[in-house]
Write a structure and sequence with these properties.
Radius of gyration: 16 Å
Oligomer: single chain
Order of helices and strands: HHEEHEEEE
Strand order of the largest sheet: 2-1-6-5-4-3
Largest sheet: 6 strands, mixed
Mean pLDDT: 87
CATH architecture: Roll
CATH class: Alpha Beta
C-alpha cells in the first residue's frame, strides 16, 4: 500500500508558532496604522515585492507603493497559513482580506501572500520578499 500525504508545512514548536504569529501581527498592526513609513520599516533595504502587474525592489519603491495605497486602505486583516521556521528565516503563507475606498466606491480585496522574513544582524526580523496575489471587486 502506498500512502501519499500532502505537504502542508507548519511551525514545529510553540516557539516557532509564536514567532510566526508575532510577525504576522506586526505586519497587520503596521498596515492598520495607515502610515507608509511604518509599513515600509517592516522591509529589509533590498526587499522585493512581487505584486500583480508590477514589482517593487528597494525601500524607496516600496515606500512609494504604500504612500499611494494606504490612504485608500480602510480595513486589513490577515490569517496565517502554512509556515516554515528556521533559525534565521520564516517563510509564511498568509491569507488576507481588506477594503479599499476609492471615491464613493469600496473595493473588497482578498488574496494570498507569501512572505519571507529574515533575521537581521541586530536580531530584528525584516521582510525580504513578499509575493502577492490579490483579487479586488467593487461592492
Amino acid at each position: 500500500m502506498l500512502l501519499i500525504a500532502g505537504c502542508n508545512p507548519k511551525a514545529e514548536t510553540n516557539k516557532d508558532q509564536s514567532l510566526a504569529d508575532s510577525l504576522l501581527k506586526a505586519a497587520d498592526d503596521a498596515y492598520n496604522t495607515k502610515d507608509p513609513q511604518i509599513i515600509t520599516n517592516l522591509y529589509a533595504d533590498d526587499a522585493l515585492i512581487i505584486a500583480p502587474g508590477k514589482n517593487y525592489w528597494s525601500k524607496d519603491s516600496i515606500y512609494a507603493l504604500f504612500k499611494t495605497m494606504v490612504p485608500l486602505l480602510k480595513v486589513y486583516k490577515s490569517y496565517l497559513g502554512p509556515t516554515t521556521v528556521s533559525t534565521d528565516m520564516v517563510q509564511m503563507q498568509k491569507y488576507y482580506t481588506g477594503e479599499l475606498v476609492m471615491g464613493s466606491s469600496t473595493l473588497k480585496a482578498k488574496g494570498v501572500g507569501y512572505q519571507i522574513w529574515k533575521k537581521q544582524p541586530d536580531n530584528s526580523w525584516k521582510i525580504v520578499m513578499f509575493v502577492e496575489s490579490a483579487d479586488m471587486k467593487p461592492y
